Amino acid sequence: MAHIILNKDKLYHNYKYLNAFFKDQEIEWSVVTKILCGNKCFLEILFSLDIKSFSDSRISNLKIIKNRKPDCTTIYIKPPAKGVISEIIKYADVSLNSSLYTIKLLDEEAKKNNKKHQIILMIDLGELREGVMREDFLELFDNAHQLSNIEIIGIGSNLSCLYGILPNSDKLNQLYLYKQLVELKYKTKLKYISGGSSVTIPLLQNKLIDSKINHFRIGETLFMGTNAYDQSNYKELKQNVFELCAEIIELYEKPLIPSGEMGTSVTGDIPKFNLNDLGKKSIRALIDIGLLDVDIKYLNPIDDHIKIEAATSDIIVLDLGKNEQNYAVGSIVTLQLDYMGIVRIMNSRYIDKVITT
Description:
26% strand, TIM Barrel, alpha/beta, 357 residues, Elongation Factor Tu (Ef-tu), domain 3, 8-stranded mixed β-sheet, 10 helices, 9-stranded parallel β-sheet
């Protein structure tokens, strides 16, 4: 049966390296756990480490974390929807916000529960995802600052996730200027400039950003060992923390081109074939995983003799060429996944989750 494996030793290695790196830079960081989709077994691996802060974009995941590790700091990392406000106050110590309407709802709920809720105000630095526009930031800060049960602990931004807009020193220094401005105007101190993510690490390594960016939210580099800025691998980190294993459930020699009148595929596409392949054959294998579980563009077989040919809802078709590796029905094929591939697999209740060392 298809299953995804998390290598505990590789994850431990990556965490220890990153923790030492950020400590040396005097930067606080929060582990972004959304890739684990609330899986309790995989989360237990993180709980065994000395992690002080967990971030997630799903309140159900933060609930699991907070119930299991009540002393940790939990951060909700997208603008909260109205329907989860009560749970945000209960399970998230901090939330990222950009809307006064939402912040007022958080203030009212916090007041009901006799709590002080901490927020980081998000500024849009060009990615056009979450964040108030820069010209409206001071007005938002002024209104939020007046709320009795809201504590503004920092300002932040998000880059790269939507359109791939990369961080640079100019953009991130703007956060520091806004911090200075509000601290001077409101006679207050903000604890964090939360401008760091996996894509910002290379800038920090190369001393291209100011050390005043003192809070990072890290997921991809921890779990993938990759440089999110240019998609290269960090030689200091372990890659393939996750691997997908799938079983071959059929194997036959078949033509390279199908026969018959052609319509659309299950995805609505019209397949195209090279007519030079007419009459040619190869060994084709079916594995027990499909588009319900993962998009094939996120997968890459570790064996470079294997090519992913196509997929339906429950099956992926592989081209084994001449099958020089002697695969057979029952053989296990191992595939690498990128970040989105892991998230999709972790969301599938049909795929077993396995821990190894």
